[in-house]
Amino acid sequence: MYINGAFMKELYLAGGPYYGLQEVFSRVKGVARVRAGFANCSSDSPSKEDIYSGKVEGRECIQVIYNPKKIDIVSLLSLFFTIINPYTDGIQGKAEGPQFRSGVYYTSPEDTMQISYYLTFLRPPIRTEMKRLENFYEAPEEEQFYLRKHPGTYTPIHIDLLEELGTIGKAENERK
What we know:
There is one protein chain. By secondary structure, the protein is an alpha+beta fold. The chain has six helices and ten strands; from the N terminus they run βββαβαβαβββαββαα. The strands form three sheets. Strands 9-8-3-5-4-10 form a six-stranded mixed sheet, covered by helices on one side. Strands 1-2 form a two-stranded antiparallel ribbon. It has a two-stranded antiparallel ribbon with strand order 6-7. The radius of gyration is 15 Å and the shape is globular. The model has no long low-confidence stretch (mean pLDDT 94).
């Protein structure tokens, strides 16, 4: 895929409420676009209510479009596994349920070796699933960048600390 003439790759990451993940990855240099949504759903065009009720299986997830010349997949995975808990099955902080299970979903077969290799070094054995992306449905526009619109919303990710440490940049609306 090309954006503004540059070759881009995509990766899908699930690990708790997508609000925090979207906010963090949108501030990473080399990431061109991040969309919140639902991955590997058992039904077409599911609603958040369908997924939360268990009527439809799916994971809260983000789509990360990135420039591989500016950031590599290993750096993205390192950040991801720093901010989520890969050792639980559907629990991220206070957020509990199958929709919050952690996962790494790929679209390109060439990424499977790098992802698999990275995952082998995480100990003890993790609960994060690694699968080919079957489908991705974007969350409604009002859910995109939800934390910027509703800063008091709970997220298990310590975004202020990541910003303070220089791991991520300032929010788009805070940049000068």
